[in-house]
Amino acid sequence: MTIRRLIIAATGAVLALAMAACGSSSSGGGTGAAASSGPAAPGNGQRGGPAAAGTVAAVAASSIEVQNAADGQVTVNFSGTTTFTNRVAAALADVTVGSCVIVGGTGQPITAKTVEVTAASANGCGAGGGMRPQNGGGSRPNRPSGAPGGQNGNPNGARAAGKVTAVSATGFTLAEENRQTGAETDVTVTVDGGTTYTKAVTADSSALKVGECVTANGKADDTGAVTATAIAISQAGANGCAAGGRQRTGGTNG
Question: In the record, which residues are listed under signal peptide (predicted)?
Answer without folding.
Answer: 1-20
